[in-house]
Design brief:
mainly alpha, 2 domains, 2 helices
Length: about 80
């Protein structure tokens, strides 16, 4: 009896840890929605929302820098 108890005590924690790991792995694989798909959908929506505004800001920045270039060529400017 003592021998059996020692064997169970020796391997019981390993078996319990393995069983817990298997349960958690199964739970993780049973996700309703893939987090990567959710992230891609979110980023796509944000790009569609802010994309045109960012292109407009970039165009204004280019015009500003070109204007600065020509203002510097004027001899009495700033």
């Amino acid at each position: 009896m003592s021998q059996t108890f020692n064997t169970v005590r020796k391997f019981g924690s390993r078996i319990a840890a393995g069983a817990t790991g298997l349960m958690l792995t199964g739970a993780a694989m049973a996700q309703a929605v893939d987090p990567f798909d959710t992230a891609v959908t979110t980023v796509t929506g944000k790009v569609e929302t802010y994309g045109a505004a960012l292109v407009g800001v970039a165009a204004v920045a280019v015009v500003f820098f070109v204007a600065i270039k020509y203002v510097k060529k004027i001899s009495k400017a700033a």
